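thought: user wants a sequence for this fold. calling inverse folding tool.
action: design(structure=
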């Protein structure tokens, strides 16, 4: 982390507007990032009872020396050149790395390092940890269970949006905006569409006929291959209560298109909330908006955001407005409260929504991967 990432000495930038055309010198990137405490986002009180945690806002060499009395030679840097370079396992026999990770490191070998500090590049993605020890498995589960967002402002906003959606609604977490998700977007959207309608109870033959009718351009396609989710199947949950056949958004919330009138399609009038990195006008999302006339996005709920006070939130350390940074969390919370939720294949955030948020909000055991 570079020294200026702490924003020390840039306090005067707080008075500049986030998108100011000519910001004061040194303030060009001031509003482009901020820091929030883990305690602001989630409840770590249970974890702190068993594990000492030290939050750092500044990991420069100077801070490590001043606060922890750790010099550069006493740090082991495990530098990764790619996000999926390292996986970690707690068992001694060798398992070749999965196609997702390039190298595997035995956790015990890190414990034997002589340095006082081990600095890792990233631990993003729970499947990075390959665990066999029951104690380690239980510990990871305990930590992941505490990753459900608990910030009161976000909870109030999510509850208000859930009420506006009518309480019973469907959810989809759809990534289409960049990298592998952009390249595979058409296939991913079709698979997610199929999974959502299967969850709603449509038989495959009816689903194929519906797809042919709504999307004649795809009429020659065979049904997509839907790979079973083995980790989720290893952690089954009780059956959900039936989805209400009369589910509808609150009267103040207008649907995007006329409701279906054909008896066979009435169930598709159910509210659908889409959490996405694209806008409502994204053509790839038309498969959902044409199927579900009552499709909604986070941008449709500015009133609920305002009532929850999101616009007034500021970073404690730098005064930067937080609303645009925390909206993805709110987006995930709303879709996590849906009666059923589908995600985007290979998206870690989608997996978090399905494995942790959705399961936690419905009172089910979370899913672990790795």
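)
observation: tool returned 370 residues.
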């Amino acid at each position: 982390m570079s020294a200026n990432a702490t924003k020390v000495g840039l306090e005067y930038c707080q008075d500049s507007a986030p998108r100011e055309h000519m910001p004061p010198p040194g303030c060009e990137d001031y509003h482009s990032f901020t820091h929030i405490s883990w305690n602001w986002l989630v409840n770590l009180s249970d974890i702190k009872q068993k594990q000492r945690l030290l939050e750092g806002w500044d990991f420069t060499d100077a801070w490590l020396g001043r606060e922890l009395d750790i010099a550069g030679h006493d740090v082991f840097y495990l530098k990764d050149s790619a996000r999926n370079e390292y996986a970690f396992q707690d068992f001694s026999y060798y398992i070749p790395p999965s196609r997702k990770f390039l190298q595997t490191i035995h956790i015990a070998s890190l414990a034997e390092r002589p340095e006082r500090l081990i600095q890792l590049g990233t631990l993003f993605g729970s499947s990075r940890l390959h665990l066999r020890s029951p104690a380690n498995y239980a510990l990871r589960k305990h930590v992941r269970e505490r990753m459900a967002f608990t910030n009161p402002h976000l909870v109030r906003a999510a509850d208000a949006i859930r009420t506006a959606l009518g309480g019973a609604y469907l959810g989809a977490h759809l990534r289409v905006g960049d990298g592998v998700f952009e390249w595979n977007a058409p296939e991913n959207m079709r698979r997610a569409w199929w999974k959502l309608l299967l969850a709603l109870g449509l038989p495959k033959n009816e689903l194929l006929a519906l797809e042919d009718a709504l999307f004649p351009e795809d009429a020659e396609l065979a049904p997509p291959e839907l790979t079973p989710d083995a980790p989720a199947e290893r952690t089954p949950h009780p059956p959900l209560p039936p989805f209400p056949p009369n589910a509808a958004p609150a009267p103040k919330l207008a649907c995007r298109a006329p409701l279906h009138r054909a008896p066979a399609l009435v169930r598709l009038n159910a509210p659908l909330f889409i959490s996405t990195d694209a806008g409502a006008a994204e053509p790839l999302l038309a498969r959902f908006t044409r199927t579900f006339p009552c499709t909604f996005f986070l941008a449709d709920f500015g009133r609920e955001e305002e009532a929850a006070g999101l616009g007034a939130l500021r970073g404690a350390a730098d005064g930067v407005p937080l609303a645009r940074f925390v909206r993805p969390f709110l987006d995930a919370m709303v879709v996590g409260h849906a009666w059923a939720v589908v995600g985007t294949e290979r998206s870690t955030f989608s997996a978090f929504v399905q494995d942790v948020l959705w399961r936690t909000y419905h009172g089910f055991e979370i899913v672990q991967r790795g």
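thought: summarizing for user.
answer: Here is the designed sequence. The beta strands are 75-78, 86-89, 103-106, 117-120, 129-130, 170-174, 272-276, 295-297, 340-342.
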